[in-house]
Amino acid sequence: MYLGDYIVIEKQTGQYRFDCCCVSTGTTFSAEVDPDKRDRFDDTTFPDQNPAACRFLRPLGEGRIGCTIHTDSPAQCKYYRCRIMDILSTEGKEAGYITGTLALHSSDSSLRDVYNRIITTVSGAGAEAEEYIRIELIRAGYQVR
Ligand code: SF4
Fold first, then answer.
1. Exposure of 63 in the CB half-sphere (CA atoms within 13 A)
2. What is the pLDDT of residue 127?
């Protein structure tokens, strides 16, 4: 909602094609609006009403918003994933979730203790680290999806 100053469209190069820049890193990238999101992208009501938002963001319905250049979005956006794992208790009740930055969100103190132990033994990031965490959580008795 507040990345309009950071993900900047520099030039439109086609009907749905843009040359862009990630201002924070100075990285340029070229993006095409995903074919299945073009109808949504054509409606500019949302970005017009929310000038601080990224120009590629659009409402998805039911109060949710989403990216219309999912395929071509820059690395920073791809890395930032709201939710990479849901953690359930052995009874199948939601115990917490982990975001793309490997932060645990949970009010379950037992899970927090387990996670703090696991995270201190994680080296690196990415798919390998995520798989390691997943296996360790399962070993500790949680269900992970
Ligand atoms: S994920 Fe998409 S909508 Fe969100 S900031 Fe990145 S490019 Fe913009």
1. 0
2. 75
Instruction: Tell me the best of 44, 67, 72 to mutate to test the pocket of ligand 1, counting ligand atoms within 8 Å of each CB and taking the most.
Output: 67
Question: What is the 3-state composition of the chain as percent helix, strand, coil, each rounded to the nearest 5?
Answer: 30, 30, 40
State the average pLDDT over residues 116-122.
94
Strand order across the beta sheet in which 7-14 lies = 7-14, 17-22, 27-32
Contact between residue 110 and residue 90 where contact means Cβ atoms under 8 Å apart: no
Which one-letter amino acid corresponds to residue 46?
F
* 55 CA: nearest ligand 1 atom: 8
Q: Say which residue the tokens 């094609």 belong to.
A: 17
Q: Specify the pTM.
A: 0.63
Q: What is the rounded (10 degree) CA torsion for 124, 129, 130, 131?
A: 170
